Amino acid sequence: MATYQWKGKKHTGEYLTGEITAESYEQVIEEIRKMGVYLINVKKKSEFFTLSLQGTKEISPNTKISDNNLIVFTRQFSSLIESGVPILQGLSIMIEQQKNKALKGILTTIRKNIESGASLSDSLRKFPKVFNDLYVNLVESGEKGGVLDKVFKRLSVYFEKILKLKRKIKGAMIYPIVVLSVAIGVIVILMTFVIPVFANLFSSVGAKLPALTRDVIGFSDFMRAYILYVIIALGIFIFALRAYHKSESGKRNIDRIILKIPIIGILLKKVAIARFARTLSTMVESGVPILAGLAIVSKTSGNKIIEESLMQTKEDVSSGSPLSTALNKTKLFPPLVIQMVMVGEKTGNLDAMLAKVADYYDEEVDNAVNNLTQMLEPVLIVFLGVVVGTLVVAMYLPIFNLGKAING
Q1: Where do the DSSP E strands lie in 258-300?
Q2: C-alpha to C-alpha distance for 261 and 358, rounded to whole angstroms
């Protein structure tokens, strides 16, 4: 038998500490749970469960980690909490086995803050680049409701599905980017090295060139003379566009134009609806108030127009409008989404209905991405063929004419 010191939290938010005599950590955990207290830390009296922090550097609040590292941490920490391991012991285990230096430093700082009396959610909030508002608010809700294990499990599932959605979009962009890069590379090589050879040949012969050939040679001369200026101008344009996009009005105008682009705009709307439904479903299921959930969801949309529409939805809901009515006013959500949200509100299963909407639009995004890829493939191939074919014809037309003149 040994004496253990423990620290826990009641459902009311009140922190408690005490001592208990037991045969093992497991028995202490079981006894504290019977008291209706959520266990934060437990250690043997006069014995400290600590981790050597030698060589650990101070971690900046702006430190970032990859989505994969965040998902792995959330999933593993969820398993530890679900198994009854107290938070501090769970963090110590995660720190000890962590290979990523940035995440190891972040977890070490979080552990220090909790040991100093801070809550887990407040400790996570100090690293906004890693743990966003959604993450922190769900953890805070889990702490208050004593369901932290369930919250971390929901977070791991949520981030896995959001990452899968991101990968679908990035995967769809790889093929056209590669083909366009090859096309531009081929055109530059032809214009810079091949066309000048033909131009010198035609000049030495003194033959009259067809209009198409003269235009191509003229464009080649322009590229060779001004290519550096074109690259600089393009760089300045991209820099100015990015700077403009960072401003409120610039981001609003550019995002509005993007949403109006055929096919691309529809795809982005479906992605935004899937993300909105998934995020709000997770928050409602975890006990986060709907107004707080809408404020957070609006920031995760990735589009200024959609963000402003969702913020207006929040204002309408706070004024007493049902969520379905407020969403319908935005004109961004299809009737199917509105109807499912309305059913969810009437039956009290809003989180479940939103989850179904998210699953449906995940499939819609998948289909849209596949259709976009299938459509772009022949278009890009035809584009590349037309450009290269035009250059080849332009260079061989004078040769054909010269052959006819010799034969004549």
Answers
A1: none
A2: 23
pLDDT for the residue 331? 86
8 A C-beta contact, residue 65 and residue 30: no
Choice among 23-37, 147-161, 376-390 with the minimum mean pLDDT: 23-37
Instruction: Return all residues near 311 (Cβ < 8 A) that are at least 6 apart.
Output: 294, 295, 298
DSSP conformation class of 55: T
Q: Are 310 and 297 in contact (CB under 8 A)?
A: yes
Contact status, residue 69 vs residue 103, Cβ threshold 8 Å: yes
Check residue 331 and give left, alpha or beta (phi > 0: left; psi -120 to 50: alpha): left
Which of 74, 68, 66 has its CA nearest to residue 102?
66
Looking up tokens 């959001």, which residue turns up?
A: 162
Scan for tokens 């809901």, then name that residue. 317
User: For position 403, what pLDDT does the model report?
Assistant: 59
Residue 352 · residue 151 · CB < 8 Å = no
**Those residues with Cβ within 8 angstroms of residue 315's Cβ, 6 or more apart along the chain or in another chain:** none
The Cα 269–Cα 266 span in angstroms is 5
For residue 51, the 8-state DSSP code is -
Residue with more model confidence, 134 or 26: 134
Euclidean distance between CA atoms 214 and 212, whole angstroms: 6
Q: Mean pLDDT in the chain?
A: 82
Contact 353, 343 (CB under 8 A): yes
Q: What DSSP line would sit under 72-114, residue for residue?
A: HHHHHHHHHHHTT--HHHHHHHHHHH---HHHHHHHHHHHHHH
Alpha helices in 98-210 (DSSP H): 101-115, 120-125, 133-145, 148-189, 195-205
Least confident span in 47-56, 252-261, 304-313: 47-56
Q: How far is CA 42 from CA 36, 46, 106, 118, 228, in A?
A: 16, 12, 22, 16, 67
Strand partners, 21: 3
Tokens of 170: 């990035």
| Prediction pTM value | 0.67
Cα separation, 257 vs 228, in Å, equals 30
